[in-house]
Amino acid sequence: MFRRALFFTSFLASPLWAADFIVQAPVLAAKVYPQGATLRRAFSVGLPEGAHRVLLPVPPALDPSQPFQIRGLVDLSLGSVELLPDYLLDSELVYMGAQKRAFDAMEDARERLEIAEGTLARMQSAIVAAEVQLEFLRARAGSEDGGLNAVELREINAMLGEEVASLSLTLQQARENARPSEVAVRDAQMAFEQAQFDFKRLQPPQGPVDLIAISLNAPEAVTANLTLSHLIFSANWRPSYDMNLNRAEGVVEVERKVIIEQQTGEIWSDIALSLSTSDPFSQINPATVDPNLALISNTNRRGAVTSTLPTVHDSRRNSLRFWA
After folding, report:
1. Among 6, 82, 143, 159, whose Cα sits 20 to 30 Å from the Cα of 288?
2. Do 30 and 269 meet the contact criterion of CB atoms below 8 Å apart?
3. Residue 272, exposed/middle/buried by CB under 10 A (0-12, 13-18, 19+)?
């Protein structure tokens, strides 16, 4: 990702920022071309009087090195627009609505899993303790004590037998009681893994987050409803046709449909979608005709041709394009 300043600066002096406002700008509308698309994002922020910065997380599909358009600057003055790389460490602060809900659901599933695992661990501890006691009693029941007579040994063994039987019953009951907890842990683990998948599929920002800083000056307190439009390459649409032959009626039925693809890393949900046959990446102005000068060439002894064609410098290669 390019690390460069964006857009332009209209303020000659740098004001003291009254506050920074972090906002999210989900996709509001998309116009899809046969190759590429124009995305329109919307965000709203309440600004008090003074100079402020609106901090917008860089969306996955937005290339900060390319121009974009900001609209809705009613009663506002636009200052510099710049990129702040790795500016925000806590990515949770910039989750969008669906991402925040999925994150909360994942944390709830994690908590339920931890509770289920704790309940099962306590039951398993009781099972292990009963197993140790039972093993000890069984070992004592089979041992010989030379200091006791036969009657005393029979009484002790009978007592140990009763204890072994009681502990065996207790152990069996503990194992049966633990089975629902084992099932609960498995269900909670599956629910947590599903919640993790649902969260990750929303492509939440990870680690340090790049921000776009939009400097605004409000002469009075105002609620700014702004839109940001930019062009992307990672979307397209194409027509598709299904032809079905009806032999009985002798006709061919043609079904027309459209296939839309996008690889922006964002989910387009409840947006205004339109299709266009335009090609935003095509050249608008006619191509420059390079000079084709007549020349005289000399062939050296080895058959190589020495050209006298002058070098032509194409100034367009180093030019920057701005979209307004």
Report:
1. 6
2. no
3. exposed
Residues 316, 287: contact at Cβ < 8 Å?
no
Partners of residue 68 on adjacent β-strands: 230
Stated pTM of the model: 0.60
Cβ(18)–Cβ(48) under 8 Å? Answer: yes
Report the candidate in 196, 197, 200, 190 with the shortest Cα–Cα distance to residue 116.
190
- Is 71 in a helix, a strand, or coil? strand
* Token pair of 95 as six digits: 């989750």
Q: Are 200 and 68 in contact (CB under 8 A)?
A: no
For the chain, what percentages of helix, strand and coil (3-state, to nearest 5) are there? 30, 30, 35
- Please give the structure tokens belonging to residue 139: 């070992």
